[in-house]
Amino acid sequence: MNNYPIINRRSPPKKVIEFFREFGFVLVEDSLFGEEKIISYFQEMKMFFDRFRREKVGYYLVENSIYGVYIPSGYEHVSRELLDTKEIFDVFHRESYTYEYYEAYNHKFGFRGRSPGPLDDPFLSGVLSQVRKNIFSVFEGLLKIFSAELGGFDFGLVKKTNYLFRLIHYPPIIDNNRKITRLGAHIDDDLLALVIAENMDGLKIKSPSYGWLRIPDLKDFFVVLIGAGLEFISEGAFKGTEHRVDGEEGSSHSRHVFNINIGSDLDFTRKSETGKVLDISKYYRRRFSKYSLNTQPL
Question: Where do the Isopenicillin N synthase-like Fe(2+) 2OG dioxygenase domain residues begin and end (predicted)?
């Protein structure tokens, strides 16, 4: 596994967005993804959730053994595990409406880095505030599904501040090999990741029975991925969804993705049926220590 942060491989420009997420850094030139484009994508997100609120939501398992769930857009998530390719990973990665969760990570685990402050654009902030109202209810519904499978397990460990919306931009692939892997295989750290990537192909999930399965680019669908945190607190009842993103063969277009993650209260502990104390804070400390990204300069 490659233990290095997601970072622009060119010299960092003067004007960058610094984002501390999963103990890695993302450095992005504003010129790659201007404010006008950002606002248009957030407007699309608002319209999506407006539809979501009005329409009946369904879901089904991709495969029972991996607990991949579809409910009414498509996919993706940034990872530290990037394969060594010739592509320049100019990943756009921006926090939008809450950062207490990640500041808590910084404080608890003593890693250097900072989360950005609230967005200062009044129009954009207004759009995001409307989007925010709908997101947690979506996760509450999902957690009820998983809770039922666990015999009524209490997900009271989830705080409303512990979720994050991001917009990610993968630039066109510049390597001649169009089958290039754009994002290496990984399992997200959170409880759940809810991903929207309409008309964007490339997501694959690992099936214990069938290997790597291609997830179709379904319009108006979410893909919900189980994170390592949920696997831990459920004591393996739910397995983390291993996934990766491959470049489309013969195509070099950009990939733009909405990504929403929900995490645990870092002070949460739970006693299992065997009497073992499950401490989510200690678990994350062990999980993140192997990346050793705190030694990287900002």
Answer: 163-249
